[in-house]
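REVIEWER CHECKLIST
Item 1: Sequence provided? yes
Item 2: Single chain? yes
Item 3: Sequence as submitted:
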Amino acid sequence: MAVKKKPDEFFDDLETMSSEAREKYQNEKLAQTVAHAYSQAPAVKELFDRAGISPEGIRTVRDLQRLPITRKTDLIERQKASSPYGGFSAIPPEDIDRVFISPGPVYEPVQHEGIRWFAKAFWAAGFQKGDVVVNTFTYHLSPAGILFHEAIRDCGATVVPTGTGNTDIQVQTMHHLKATGFIGTPSFLMTVLKRAEEMGYNVKKDLCLKRAWFTGEMLAPSLRETFEKDYEIDTYQAYAVTESGGALAYECREKAGMHLMDEYFIEIVDPETGRQLGPGEVGEIVVTPLHNRNWGLIRFGTGDLSSYTTEPCPCGRTAHRLTGILGRAGDAVKVRGMFVVARQVEQVCLSSAPVARFQVAVTRREQRDEMNLKVELKHELSSEEKQKLAGELSQNLQNICRVKPDRIDFVSTGTISEEQPKIVDERTWE
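Item 4: Structure as written out by the authors:
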């Protein structure tokens, strides 16, 4: 891989390709990916055969429109029917290096092939040798912690695997090790900084944080302004999807949209028809990994809404850029970095005998996502019975969705109608 160094930046050949070279590269990689997945992953072969399409029929990115979109709910149902991988694993079981688990559950087999390509997202944010970076993403079950760790190391930086929680230890570690970088969600960084101030630290004087890289939740413009102006922390964000194996797009120094990774083919499509949309049109983000031969996902629908621009970027990277994540196409929302799917909440709530109806409301308070569950009961319960039921629902939701509700309210009969959505996203991003 050819490398051209600039101050605080790293470019590889893919990032600076011409549009013609990128189209040729993606078409070639797509044909190889489709052929391999068809021959090795039974679920992909079934998908193609049912659609009446052979692998030879997918030669260009435009041809992808002939295939249906696979969604997370499809993965969950397929893995229930054909355990453990639902027919999407494209490598022999004995060659699997790791298995990651995302909520659902969805089991994701990985054959370690190196992820140097993923380091681009961190080079673009200025991480390099000499940086000490706290990685606050979890190192168990989901891939985020380990993948980000390895990518940061590819930049030459030192990683401190702090994981989630333990804000006092996070603050002490940053102070003692003179950490210059933070990897995590914006809300958690704000929690850590506020805790540092409560502990008597002057963040700008006593800590050495210079840059932060976020994914897992939206970075509100007001919060970015607080980080950059009040705390003098340079912030960058990326768009990542667990099921696809990593970050799909990332910000450069211009912070004017997120450059698409060339190791994936990203479509913006009409969620109802699957038709590819053009620049500026809002649609669902659909991803086909071109680098990952382990996991036979073709046209995976993320459920997230965005648009893209083809305008040149002054940074020199030539890939199209996502303009931001605008919301959800389906009935799932991301809360504190984790997807909460209506079907999963339904599984928890309606498996409990006293529950008649439910609704989840996601709000935002003091730069933190809050998830509140409203519950209608089939019959009245005593205060003690309600308290016990609330505890059971809270624990089961945390087990299934990995997000614990902040509040559970028992509401009167008729408050929640069948026509109302099961999940309501009431957050505003100012």
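Item 5: Key structural point noted by reviewer: Residues 1-8 have pLDDT under 50 and may be disordered.
Item 6: Recommendation: ____
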